[in-house]
Amino acid sequence: MKNNLIVSDSPHLHKEESVTKIMWLVVASLVPAGIAGVYIFGFSALRIILLGAISAVITEGILQLLTKRKVTLLDGSAFLTGLLLAYNLPPKVPFWLPMVGSLFAIAIGKQIFGGLGQNIFNPALVGRVFLMASWPKYMTSFTQPLNYDAVTSATPLALIKEGKVLENISYLDLFLGKRGGCIGEVCILALLLGAIFLLMKGYISWHIPITYIATTGILTYIFGTKGLFSGDWLFHILSGGLILGAFFMATDYVTSPLTRKGQIIFGIGCGLITAIIRLWGGYPEGVSYAILMMNGATPIIDRFTKNRIYGTR
Amino acid sequence: MKGYFREFVKGIIKENPTFVLVLGLCPTLAVSVSVINGIGMGIAATFVLLGSNIIIALLKNIIPDRIRIPCFIVVIATFVTINEMVMKAYSPVLDRALGIYVPLIVVNCIVLGRAEAYAQRETVLNSFFDGLGMGVGFTLALILISAIREFLGAGTILGYKLIKGFEPAFVLAMPSGALLVIGLLLGFFNVLKNRKI
Question: Can you tell me the mean pLDDT for A32-45?
Fold first, then answer.
């Protein structure tokens, strides 16, 4: 009888879903891309993925013990952060790089702000940008796909940036992941499988990813190298970390806007910054910086796209 | 004598200019790349603090209240100029490393803050020990920050490599690294302070 009389604030509708369940399902949806990455780059990629994910979980546990907060090791959020960070690393980095990255991502990117739900920036991307600024030498040396002898090669985007012509790489290669790049970003097919699963389950909405990818595609088409409206938009969509970033990192619940209108603005902003960095910036790839910058703008977007409460003006 | 000692010690921990009063952050952020720069900056600021505190404490009855800030600035600028010339003459390398931040001690909030908050209403001896304590506190804070940044950002302390095979994180030698280190240290000292009470 006692349990039937609960006084609580709205919202009164509850779903079976919990943070834990959603987090682990997102992890599951990322598994195909991980398998593809390990197949393409060899077992060193698997080691990096495991090191990244496990050190993120350990860091979270230690910090929650130290700050005397509730220890939530198994809710999957730290695991997901470490996994996404590892997916954003080149396949042949030294073993301590994913560990330091995960430590930084969880400690500075998340727990400093107060843990899950309080962070301003996507922790995985905070970790990646920290590694990028600290050890650029490791973060920009990529290996050839399907060649496990660690022959270095540049990513397609880096080659384009240097003004070289791409040879013997077809759209199909890009789609299946036969190219140099980070572990988790290369196999678009596997990423799309996971993304479709999440979309069908309703864990992510189409608003951010579609506007993000479309904006990048349109801008790279308009401002092509051979004059206006001649750009290779399909190449730009299929290369780099755009698909991984758009579906799995820009859609992070904590750091993206709450309303649909806000999410569309967020996606367009991400696409704009990504295209600007790729076309005119100093780096070949700009997905992580674009998402982080729009993370910073999220509170303002939320403020200006508040839903009108029924009955108010 | 005990009173003077208290005036001296308070600047080191209880009222540390960097970590408790949070003053003079611009030079702290800019020069704490290496320990030697930190020590140089700390000594330069201590010298200016001592000089300005003594002179302002001496002149406190003559300086008209309305124009006291310009008067303080003139006194401080005099000592900064002396300091700059001495540094240029005897240690040009350090002068080049610190660059614009030596003349900018004129507007260092620690110096002006102590003149305004302390020296203009205290005795000369008290002001002397206050300036000395604040200067030492500032120097120690700079050494702490720059030691962390130099070790993690360049792998060295005072130019000596400590651990073989340690790969420094460049980001800590950059301005963003300074903000990270100072933020973490501020948080750490706040935790310590709150635990005591």
Answer: 92
